[in-house]
Design the sequence.
């Protein structure tokens, strides 16, 4: 999984949450956000997850920024975002632009806070969440009927993601003492501007370290924007969706370059530079891309703790007086789930017996052959914001 992180210099935690800095709305491109743009992406241990995905905008906006509405002073000082007004207004504009983007695509953002009804949440906090992040705070009775609350939350997310995310909260994840749950799910479905033909999909070898596994490899020959980054010996390919307001960008290292080399060098500013249209040429290219169907779930508490937000989860220290009249009300749960499917028609995000081809891709003409680990990003072109990103390193 790829994850947002401002100025974080420690070791990536050995767990599913792997820090990475990414999306910053264009309206927040101010001096106080510059550190964010220059911070390296950090991707977690491939020994834990061979394929990792998540929604960048969702994690940054719905969880961390909504918390800021109610947090006093220092949490976001640790995140290098001291001027909160710009952050809130930036995400308000970003969500508005993205939600109205591309009539040919479907994008569903399931952002909501669920709070214990006895906590007396402040009207101003509820209004801010709705205004800036399109996220309602719904009050439930965790103390009286924990399981019914869990099912209610799951049903809400399932509906918002058109059934692709069915159980964002597993059994036992909430209890009678739960005070606040922050939930996010995202569903995206887009058709390629240039669709792959199913009849050309074949079984092909995908190289993982010293092993080779079989994947269903799609093929398309058409004109696409393509570039090359000498710094990390990596090909860059952009595959637009219908309407050309959203696109998938793929970073594919050369055969003799390991993916961690790219990950270590990658920052948000470098990503923008590497994918700058002026540095990419539209050319007829042979594209080989595996079918993808990925789904991941994450509890973000340990990740947020690693950023310095420790008090938010501890009853004796939590100070969310900007959210509620109740004191010592810790965050009970911050969870995220993401689904991405890439096939011949396009991408769905929120999954005939082939002939095995042992040969590698032909290099006789411009070719982009994703038969070894790569990074992928789905971005909104107008705001240059990353909606989803992930690593595909093993079938």
Sequence:
């Amino acid at each position: 999984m790829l994850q947002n992180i401002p100025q974080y210099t420690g070791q990536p935690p050995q767990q599913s949450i792997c820090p990475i800095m990414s999306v910053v709305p264009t309206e927040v491109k101010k001096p106080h956000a510059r550190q964010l743009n220059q911070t390296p992406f950090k991707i977690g241990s491939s020994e834990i997850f061979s394929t990792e995905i998540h929604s960048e905008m969702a994690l940054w906006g719905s969880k961390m920024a909504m918390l800021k509405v109610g947090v006093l002073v220092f949490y976001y000082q640790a995140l290098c975002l001291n001027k909160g007004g710009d952050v809130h207004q930036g995400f308000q504009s970003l969500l508005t632009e993205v939600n109205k983007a591309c009539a040919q695509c479907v994008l569903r953002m399931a952002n909501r806070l669920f709070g214990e009804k006895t906590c007396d949440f402040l009207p101003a906090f509820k209004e801010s969440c709705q205004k800036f992040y399109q996220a309602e705070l719904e009050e439930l009775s965790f103390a009286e009927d924990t399981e019914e609350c869990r099912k209610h939350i799951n049903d809400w997310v399932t509906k918002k993601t058109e059934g692709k995310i069915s159980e964002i909260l597993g059994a036992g994840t909430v209890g009678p003492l739960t005070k606040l749950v922050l939930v996010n799910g995202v569903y995206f479905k887009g058709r390629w501007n240039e669709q792959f033909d199913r009849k050309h999909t074949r079984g092909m070898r995908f190289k993982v370290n010293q092993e080779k596994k079989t994947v269903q490899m799609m093929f398309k020959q058409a004109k696409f924007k393509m570039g090359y980054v000498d710094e990390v010996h990596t090909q860059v390919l952009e595959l637009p969706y219908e309407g050309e307001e959203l696109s998938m960008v793929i970073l594919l290292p050369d055969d003799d370059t390991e993916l961690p080399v790219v990950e270590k060098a990658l920052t948000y500013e470098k990503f923008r530079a590497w994918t700058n249209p002026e540095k990419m040429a539209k050319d007829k290219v042979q594209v080989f891309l595996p079918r993808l169907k990925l789904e991941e779930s994450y509890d973000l508490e340990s990740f947020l703790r690693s950023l310095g937000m420790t008090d938010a989860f501890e009853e004796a220290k939590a100070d969310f007086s900007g959210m509620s009249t109740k004191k010592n009300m810790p965050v009970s749960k911050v969870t995220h789930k993401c689904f991405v499917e890439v096939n011949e028609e396009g991408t769905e995000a929120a999954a005939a017996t082939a002939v095995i081809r042992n040969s590698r891709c032909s290099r006789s003409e411009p070719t982009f052959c994703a038969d070894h680990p790569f990074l992928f990003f789905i971005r909104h072109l107008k705001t240059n914001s990353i909606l989803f990103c992930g690593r595909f390193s093993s079938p």
About this structure: The CA atoms of residues 298 and 336 lie 5 Å apart. Confidence is low (pLDDT under 50) at residues 1-85, 351-363. The radius of gyration is 21 Å.
